[in-house]
Specification:
Blueprint lengths: L2 H6 L5 H4 L5 E2 L7 E7 L4 E3 L4 E4 L20 E3 L1 E7 L5 E9 L7 E4 L11 E3 L4 E6 L8 H13 L7 E6 L2 E7 L6 E8 L5 E7 L4 E11 L5 E2 L3 H5 L3 E5 L2 E8 L5 E4 L5 E7 L2 E6 L7 E12 L4
Antiparallel strand pairs: 1-2, 2-6, 3-5, 4-10, 6-7, 7-14, 8-13, 9-13, 10-12, 11-12, 13-14, 15-22, 16-17, 17-18, 18-21, 19-22, 20-21
C-alpha cells in the first residue's frame, strides 16, 4: 500500500466533504449530502500570515495572533463545503483556502502564534467565521460591522451566506458557519512531500456524538452498587432495601439513563444532583441503562 493509500484510510471527514455529491451517514434521518461553493472574490494574502476568527468578535485594529505557519503570498480561492440535512436545512460544514492545486494527503492542527501545537480552535459566537491576512488591519466601527451583516444577508443562498470586505491592506472573506454557534478547528493540508496545499477550518457538522453505556439488570442489590465502569465515570447507583422498584442515581451532568421498557417508569424526582427513579414492577429482562457522553467521532462517508 502506498503512502497516499495508507493516509486515505485515516482521513478526517472534511477530505470527502469538498467532493460534491459525497453523502455522510447519520443515525436518524436521511444521509447528509455535500456540495461545494467558491466565494465570489479571492482571499488576498500579502504577508503570508493568515488569521481566522468570528469577525463580530475581532478588533481589526489589534487582531488576534495569526497561524504560526506562514503561507505563500498571493491571491487564493476560498471554498465552502455545504452540508444538506434535508428538512433540517443546510449549513457550512468546512471552509478552506486553497494554496495549491494538488490533493492534500495528510493534515496537521494549525496552532496560532504563541500557542501550543494543539491550540487551533476559535470561538464562533455570531455564527460567522472568516479568513484574512494580518495586513487587514484598521479601525472598524459599528456602522461598518452592521453593513457587513446586511451585505451577508444580501448574499444569502439557502442556509448559508458570505461577504468579502476591504480592511486595511487586504480583505476579509467571511461566511456563515455550521448551524449556529460553536467553534472552528483549523488544519493544514499537506501533499506527499509535506508542501502546503490548503488551510481547512472544520465547524463540526461532520462529527457525531458518541456515548458509552452500561446495562444493569433489575432489581438491583441493596446498597451502593460497586462496579469499575460506574466508579471510573463518577456515577453512584444505590438500591433500596425496602423498595425493590426504586433506584437512586447520582453522576455528572452528561449522564443519562432510561429503562429498557419505558412504559414501566412510574416516576422520577430530582433533588439537587441526585435522582430517584421508580418503576411499576420488576419483570424478567427489565434493565436500567446508564449512558454518558464520550465525545464525538467523524461521520462515515457512504
Amino acid at each position: 500500500m502506498s503512502r497516499s493509500e495508507r493516509a486515505a484510510t485515516d482521513l478526517p471527514p472534511f477530505t470527502a466533504a469538498f467532493n460534491a455529491g459525497t453523502r455522510f451517514a447519520r443515525e436518524h434521518g436521511e444521509p447528509i449530502e455535500m456540495s461545494t461553493q467558491q466565494i465570489g472574490e479571492f482571499l488576498r494574502v500579502p504577508s503570508g500570515r493568515v488569521v481566522v476568527g468570528d469577525p463580530g468578535l475581532i478588533d481589526f485594529a489589534a487582531p488576534p495572533p495569526p497561524f504560526a505557519r506562514e503561507t505563500p503570498v498571493g491571491v487564493f480561492p476560498v471554498e465552502l463545503a455545504l452540508a444538506d440535512f434535508g428538512y433540517d436545512g443546510t449549513g457550512v460544514a468546512c471552509a478552506r483556502v486553497r494554496f495549491a492545486a494538488g490533493p492534500a494527503v495528510r493534515w496537521e492542527p494549525a496552532p496560532f502564534v504563541g500557542r501550543s501545537a494543539g491550540e487551533s480552535v476559535y470561538e464562533v459566537f455570531h455564527d460567522i467565521g472568516c479568513f484574512f491576512d494580518a495586513a487587514a488591519r484598521a479601525t472598524v466601527d459599528e456602522a461598518t460591522t452592521q453593513f457587513w451583516g446586511e451585505a451577508m444577508a444580501h448574499n444569502r443562498n439557502g442556509g448559508w451566506m458570505w461577504h468579502v470586505a476591504e480592511v486595511g491592506g487586504a480583505n476579509v472573506v467571511m461566511f456563515s458557519t455550521g448551524r449556529g454557534g460553536g467553534c472552528g478547528a483549523s488544519y493544514w493540508g499537506l501533499d506527499e512531500q509535506g508542501g502546503l496545499v490548503e488551510l481547512v477550518t472544520d465547524f463540526g457538522l461532520l462529527h457525531e456524538p458518541v456515548s458509552e453505556q452500561i446495562e444493569l439488570s433489575l432489581p438491583l442489590p441493596h446498597g451502593e452498587l460497586v462496579h469499575p465502569w460506574l466508579a471510573a465515570r463518577g456515577i453512584s447507583v444505590r438500591g433500596l432495601q425496602w423498595a425493590e422498584t426504586v433506584v437512586i442515581l447520582r453522576g455528572p451532568k452528561e449522564m443519562g439513563f432510561y429503562l429498557s421498557e419505558p412504559r414501566m417508569v412510574a416516576g422520577q424526582r430530582w433533588t439537587g444532583d441526585e435522582c430517584r427513579l421508580e418503576w411499576k414492577r420488576n419483570t424478567p429482562g427489565l434493565r436500567l441503562v446508564i449512558c454518558v457522553s464520550a465525545g464525538t467521532r467523524p461521520r462515515a462517508p457512504l
